[in-house]
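hey so i finally got around to running the thing on that chain from the lab meeting. sorry it took forever, my laptop kept dying and i had to restart like 3 times. anyway pasting the input first so we r on the same page abt which one it is
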Amino acid sequence: MPSEKVTNKEYKVITKALFELLASCNVIPNGIPVKYQTVAETESIGLITLPGAKYMEKYIDGGFKAQMPFQISYKAKATTNGQMMESQRVLDGICDWLEAAEFPNLTDKREIKEVTVNSTTYVTEMNEAGYVVYARTGSMVYEKEE
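ok and heres what got predicted. didnt touch it at all, straight out
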C-alpha cells in the first residue's frame, strides 16, 4: 500500500496522546514544564510534531496501523561543557523512558505499539542568554482496531 497521510482528525487525536505520554514522564526534572510545538523562554521540554504522519497499513475491517514522527526538545541553561553534557543526559533519559514506557490505553481502540527515538542528540539553537536547545527525533507506531 502506498503511504497515505493520516487525516487531520486522526492527527489531533494521536498528537494529544503522545503529548500526554511525554507529560507523564517521571524522569523529567521537577519544575520543568512540558510544552506542545514549542519550548518556553527558559528551561523546558517540548514535543514538536514533524511532517509525515502516515498510515502504514489499512485493514479490511476499518482498522489501521500508523506512524507519527516527532521531535523531543530540551531547553536548558548550559554554558559550560559539564552543563552541556548533563543537559544531553537529561534528554537522553527522557527518550530512554519513552522507548521503555508502559503505554497507556488510547481512545477509540488505539494502542501504541512502539516508540523509537534516534540515538543522536543534537543542538538546534543557542542564545546569548546561555540557553541551549537539544533535540532528538523519533517516531511512534500505533494501531487502531475496529
